[in-house]
Fold:
Amino acid sequence: MSDETGMGSDFFKSTDKNPSNIMPEKLTYDSPLQFECHPGVSCFTACCHNIKIVLTPYDILILRQRLGMKSHEFVTEYTEPNYLENTDMPGVQIKLTEDKQACPFVTPEGCTVYGDRPTACRYYPVGMADFHEGGTDDARVDKFFFVVKEDHCKGFEEPKKWTIREWREDQGVDVRDEMNKEWLRLIMRRKSHGHQASLSGPAKRMFFMASTDLDHFRRFIFESSFLDTYEIDQETVDKIKEDDIELMKFSFQYLANTLFGAEGLSIKKGKIMDKVQEIQQRQDDSLRKAEEDYEALKAARDKLPKDRMNLP
Ligand code: SF4
Ligand code: SF4
Structure:
């Protein structure tokens, strides 16, 4: 059994690395949860300080739309770079305020972007793990949940009772899971490859650009030779031109293809032939050069007196 996507509160959001915060119980959708977070709890907004909140491409898209900003403006203003899940894949996390180490969206009254808050802020206190038996995409998936209980969190003292399913529906995490799934899979794939080979500089830049700046990624698709190189049907082209979510999903497909050789995108036949010819031409040129060098060397040697050549 291998852990394909062990995602949940710990991946996106962490205050410390204390595993004792995780309750040692495997929960299902129907398991009970007693918890509530509201402005009346004495710790209200405590968890919006001194925290690492990793943003997914979907989080960035939704937040920057809410704030009416371009992707790069949002990323510059509200985030700082990090590396994702101990990999060499670059991502971003929310930049905390310098004085209070607080999330820039928190006020004493609560979260100012609550309806569009990031994935990380929706998971707590319920984490999720997917175990893919055999580690392949179509393998049997065993999904379960677990509770994370931070010492300072008073939400567990509130009387409200839910099932895990009801809690997740209330927090809107199913949509987030769906939107983040393929991006998380890229990171888990990278993680499972270990550090045998590091990503090249251009691969890192491409991953960062596609993950954080869809405006830039769209320009890359439509203003470079991309569409001349790849077989993309017209329906997809029309969709990704107008629809940010379709573009985001396409970027995951493109990254899986370029970083891990996943199927789904193919290069136009003519382009493959051009490439083959280019390689053949290069081989022919280097063979010709080697022959010329050899002939030049032979001619030079023939000019030398026999006694200086040390030859029989
Ligand atoms: S986005 Fe909202 S909920 Fe999340 S840390 Fe910031 S203020 Fe808190
Ligand atoms: S620490 Fe717990 S109860 Fe307090 S604000 Fe955060 S989630 Fe709510």
User: Anything to note?
Assistant: The pocket of iron/sulfur cluster (ligand 2) is lined by residues 37, 41, 43-47, 124, 152-155 (CB under 6 Å). DSSP finds twelve helices and 13 strands in the chain. Residues 2-193 form one domain. The CA atoms of residues 161 and 189 lie 37 Å apart.
